[in-house]
Specification:
The protein is mostly helical. The chain has seven helices and four strands. The strands form two sheets. The protein has a two-stranded parallel ribbon with strand order 1-2. It has a two-stranded parallel sheet with strand order 3-4.
Length: about 375
């Protein structure tokens, strides 16, 4: 209070005395009329008032900015505390014995990951761990179908383990914008899972079972699929660029119009697989089993025979058409390929039977 009053006294004194001192200094003893001197003093006072007014405005702006920063910091701290509380409660829900509570927790984590970029990687890891824990392969719990149960007798994942399907769907959405390199879904039981349109780039599915899974338009760029079971899986128009499918089982899989460029199918079982119109520039099929596979319209060109790695591949009974493109120098007749008519345009996926009612046809090839 006293300091403020003292400041006002000093400021008032400065406005009364300082302009005269400034004018007298500038005149340097020269004689001027009193009226002219008064006008000069008032001009100095006006300038001083403008300077002080500008300083007051600047100080007010600075004070407002500081207050805004303090308010923002407080709001951010409140929001982070709220997110942390939601995160903790959602994680606690995952351990519930009730299915609906677990599903609620998974959806809560999904929502948090979409709103909080800093929590996204942790939530992706939690979802992947949830799937590995609840759906190990081979199946370990009494509620899970045994490994040798025919695929047509197994219900879709969303029916037999609705919480796992929610976690898998959330993972496939969040992986589209993740920062970490790899997500581990190896050795998981994902039979008849619905992965249509989901993103799994650089995801590790090694030794997992995705038999009859729906992967229509899924993105599996650079995914690791070593020794994976993809029998009867629907990979129509999916992206498997640079994917590693070594020693995998893709018997009867549907890879129509799939992007297989630079993928590695070394020693993979592709018997009866449907690769119509797939693009496989630079793909490796070294010692792969392509017997009875449908290669009509498949593009295997773009490289020479040695680097195409069809060396050692078995193609007896595989179907090809005039639109099938082979590596330069490849003798399809000697390999046992059967030339047949092109199938024409592919039917719309909207006309196909839904995954929940689709029945996997029996394989003609022996195990």
């Amino acid at each position: 209070m006293l300091a403020g009053a003292a400041g006002l006294v000093v400021l008032g004194t400065g406005f009364v005395l300082l302009p005269g001192v400034v004018v007298d200094h500038d005149l340097a003893g020269a004689s001027v009329a009193a009226q002219d001197r008064l006008k000069a003093v008032n001009d100095v006072r006006t300038t001083l008032l403008q300077v002080v007014g500008g300083l007051v405005v600047l100080f007010g702006a600075y004070a407002t900015w500081r207050q805004l920063r303090v308010s923002q910091d407080g709001l951010r701290a409140t929001q982070e505390g709220y997110v942390t509380d939601r995160f903790s409660r959602a994680v606690d829900q995952l351990g519930s014995d009730k299915l609906d509570v677990r599903i609620g927790g998974l959806h809560a984590l999904w929502r948090i990951a979409e709103q909080s970029a800093r929590d996204r990687e942790a939530i992706i890891s939690i979802q992947a761990a949830y799937l590995r824990t609840h759906l190990p392969w081979p199946p370990a719990g009494p509620e899970s179908p045994a490994a040798d149960v025919p695929i047509n007798e197994i219900a879709p994942l969303e029916t037999r383990a609705a919480d796992a399907q929610v976690a898998l769907t959330a993972l496939g959405v969040l992986c589209r914008h993740r920062e970490q390199s790899w997500v581990n879904l190896s050795i998981t039981d994902l039979r008849r899972a619905d992965c249509d349109g989901l993103w799994f780039p650089e995801v590790n599915f090694d030794r997992a079972c995705l038999e009859a899974a729906g992967l229509y338009r899924a993105n599996l760029t650079q995914a690791s699929l070593v020794s994976v079971n993809l029998r009867h899986a629907d990979l129509t128009t999916a992206i498997l660029r640079r994917a590693r499918c070594v020693l995998a089982d893709l018997r009867g899989a549907k890879l129509v119009e799939t992007d297989l460029r630079d993928a590695d199918f070394t020693e993979t079982d592709l018997r009866e697989a449907n690769l119509r119109k797939a693009v496989a520039h630079g793909a490796v099929f070294q010692r792969a089993d392509l017997r009875l596979a449908d290669l009509r319209g498949t593009d295997l060109s773009g490289t020479d025979l040695s680097t195409a790695n069809l060396v050692g591949a078995r193609l007896t009974g595989a179907m090809a058409s005039e639109h099938t493109r082979w590596p330069a120098g490849f003798d399809r007749a000697a390999a046992g390929v059967v030339d047949t008519d092109d199938p024409g345009p592919e039917p719309s996926p909207l006309l196909q039977p839904p995954g929940m009612t689709w029945q996997a046809p029996p394989l003609r090839s022996t195990p």
